[in-house]
Design goal:
The structure is a single chain. The chain is α+β, with helices and mostly antiparallel strands and 671 residues long. It folds into 3 domains: 185 residues, Lipoxygenase-1 (Sandwich); 93 residues; 215 residues, 3-Layer(aba) Sandwich (Rossmann fold). Helix content is 30%, strand content 20%. The protein is built from 10 helices and 21 strands. The strands form 3 sheets. Strands 1, 2, 3, 4, 5, 6, 7, 8, 9, 10, 11 and 12 form a 12-stranded mixed beta sheet that branches. It has a 5-stranded parallel beta sheet with strand order 16-17-18-15-19, with helices on both faces. The longest helix has 43 residues. It is globular. The termini are far apart.
Length: 671
């Protein structure tokens, strides 16, 4: 039976290795603090938080999320520790809620590694608090218990940590908030929440469950045991921006309908206006059953959805989550094996009688053999899961539509300008070191909810050297052109417009395919005057649409107003930018996506540092991509560092020229 605790109540713990599961209606920060018998935290090294997610016996999420899984090994905490506090806080400096009274009551549960729930506690009664001690695991007469605390602090993490005696409380609180901001800025945005009818169903045997941290799936109540293969798609870490009301069409929706004026800052409604009260159709028929004892044969489109594109989109995200979680389980098992071996060796060496002679050698060999056995078991489970995922990737990749496919996919040779906007766009591939052969398509929803920053700074290459700055600038612009061409290709004719700011003309060679085919709104803007003109026109456009949407007066827009989505490519920043232009750029990055204006920066952050912290909010609001392989992106569930590889046109291929020529011809007919 699960013990449903109320504030102040305790319950005994019979297991040392536990998971603390947390769910809330909004992204929150989760941390864990070690303290002595008086509840005092001795130093920053006693706190596990997103900036330092592992401490002795603890591992917490690396990002703010609507759901968390914290791993606790009570046998591994230091002897001086008598309490383990579970701390929750609302992120600061964002657009989200600033007090717990404005969100659904957070739910916490203590479970065993098999998912069995031991005790739970719902934090009701919170109001102005922005940080809270949710639970406390504590020693009592040689045994561990859990207590429901629910002590909140209106002053946030700084006041909470100060109250627990930490001298560096305010500095640590600032470091945690900084780590959360950086984590959100590098995270791949998760797809929007889906109903139970839209959950992806897998037919694969589930591997052994290990601690997996950082899930963003909002759960209103207890979080059930989860296998890395049950495939539920998570909610986004934060509220997405409202969809631009003049986008022309919606995914799988046919002709657009004029929506009522949304409130700025509200969520995007991805649902079809005629499908509000209906469940999506089931997945297509499965492949013939596999032989007894063998995993099910993978099928492209093995997910629910209204169309094959939607089913493939959901399947790709399910594969992404599966790989993240099964790798987390493997890494957790290896970490446990190593910590167990270290502890056993420490116990052997603590007895002077075992330091010499055969008894000590035998004990050491036994510990190492047990470690090797645990690692081999973990690797066997991982290899089984990877084989199934590899087989699925092999059937899914050839079946992807153009918007989801690599440039070398034959689907591009049959390209025709679409009549509808797809659900998403592929920006590259993601992979982990444990599974180099499996490439997960990096899909982002359309319309874009955040801008892109293509990093033209020097990045370490595979051989450990630094790529030349000039070469990186050229590669960055080629990457930007490939992304812009893909955006132009997947939108219907006349529904996507691209502007380019290239003050010094440094990107002329890379921009040639866009200029030559005539798909740009105009020639690339050069010099300070050109920068000011383009930024001024796009800023005015955002202002006009913003006023029309908020005032419910869409018909009042000027005649001939371009209702297409707008993309601004900025090369060689900050050359040609004055303070006014920089402020306009920040305004477009913050407000533009909600009203149909998107930003793609091609810039070297180091060179742009002359503006100091003024530009930090700009960098964080953009999704950083690199023109070469680099492990800088994090998944929204576990927070692994994924290696990102851009989707580039193969050398010598004419596919880009052919696609852009069709886009230009369709635009000419449209106008």
């Amino acid at each position: 039976m699960t013990a449903e605790l109320v504030r102040g109540q305790n319950h005994p713990l019979s297991q040392a290795r536990l998971e603390i599961r947390i769910s809330a209606g909004t992204p929150i920060v989760a941390a864990a603090a070690l303290s002595d018998e008086n509840g005092r935290i001795h130093g920053v090294e006693w706190v596990a938080h997103p900036g330092a997610p592992t401490q002795p016996g603890l591992e917490v999420s690396r990002q703010a999320a609507a759901a968390h899984r914290l791993a606790v090994d009570l046998d591994a905490v230091p002897e001086a520790v008598h309490r383990v506090g579970v701390l929750l806080a609302l992120p600061t400096g964002g657009a989200g809620p600033i007090r717990f009274g404005a969100v659904a009551a957070p739910f916490t549960a203590v479970t065993g590694l098999d998912g069995t729930e031991i005790a739970s506690f719902t934090l009701t009664g919170l109001d102005t608090e922005s940080a809270v001690v949710a639970l406390e695991l504590y020693r009592r007469q040689g045994a561990w218990k859990v207590r429901a605390v629910g002590q909140g602090y209106a002053g946030g993490l700084a006041d909470l940590l100060t109250d627990q005696g930490l001298p560096q409380a305010r500095q640590l609180a600032a470091d945690i908030n900084e780590a959360v901001a950086q984590g959100l800025s590098r995270s791949v945005q998760a797809p929007p929440p889906r109903t139970a009818d839209g959950d992806r169903s897998r037919r694969t045997a589930a591997p052994a469950l290990g601690p997996d941290h950082g899930s963003t799936t909002p759960q209103p109540g207890p979080v059930p045991p989860r296998s890395p293969y049950d495939g539920q798609l998570p909610g986004a870490p934060g509220e997405p921006a409202p969809q631009h009301p003049y986008a022309g069409s919606t995914p799988d929706a046919g002709p657009a309908t004029q929506p009522s004026a949304p409130t700025a800052g509200g969520p995007i409604d991805y649902s079809h206006p005629r499908r509000q009260n209906a469940a999506p159709p089931p997945p297509p028929p499965a492949a013939p059953p596999a032989a007894p004892g063998q995993p099910a044969r993978p099928v492209a489109g093995d997910a629910t959805g209204w169309s094959l594109d939607e089913r493939l989109y959901n399947q790709v995200w399910g594969m992404f989550e599966d790989l993240a979680r099964t790798t987390a389980a493997y890494r957790s098992a290896v970490d446990f094996a190593e910590s167990r071996m270290d502890k056993e060796l420490e116990q052997v060496l603590s007895d002077p009688r075992n330091r010499i002679g055969g008894q000590g050698d035998a004990a050491r060999e036994t510990a190492r053999a047990r470690h090797a056995q645990l690692v081999d078991q973990a690797r066997e489970a991982l290899d089984r899961d990877l084989a199934q995922l590899k087989a699925e990737a092999d059937v899914v990749e050839p079946a992807l539509p153009a918007a989801y496919a690599r440039w070398d996919n034959p689907v591009w040779h049959a390209y025709r300008v679409p009549m509808e906007i797809p659900m998403a766009l592929r920006l590259g591939d993601l992979h982990l070191p444990e599974a180099e052969e499996i490439r997960i398509p990096m899909l982002v929803r359309l319309p874009l909810e955040r801008g892109l920053w293509i990093d033209s700074g020097r990045v370490p290459s595979a051989d450990g050297s630094l790529t030349d700055t000039h070469a990186m600038g050229r590669l960055a612009m080629e990457t930007a052109v490939a992304h812009a061409a893909r955006l132009l290709a997947v939108y219907p004719a006349g529904e996507f417009t691209v502007h380019v700011v290239d003050p010094a003309g440094a990107g002329a060679q890379a921009l040639a395919p866009l200029v030559r085919t005539g798909v740009l709104a105009g020639p690339p803007a050069a010099g300070a005057a050109g920068v000011a003109d383009v930024l001024g026109r796009l800023t005015e456009r955002v202002d006009l649409v913003q006023m029309a949407v908020r005032g419910g007066a869409a018909d009042a827009l000027p005649p001939g107003f371009d209702t297409a989505q707008q993309l601004l490519i900025v090369n060689d920043f900050p050359h040609g930018f004055d303070d006014r232009a920089v402020n306009q750029l920040r305004y477009l990055a913050d407000e533009g996506p909600a009203f149909g204006v998107h930003l793609m920066m091609v810039a070297d952050r180091e060179e742009s540092s002359a503006y100091g912290p003024l530009l930090d909010p700009l960098w964080r609001s953009l999704l950083r991509l690199t023109p070469v392989a680099d492990d800088h992106l994090a998944d929204p569930w576990v927070g692994h560092a994924w290696t990102y590889e851009p989707s580039l046109v193969p050398p010598g291929s004419q596919v880009l020229q052919q696609v852009l020529s069709q886009v230009a011809a369709a635009r000419a007919k449209h106008w």
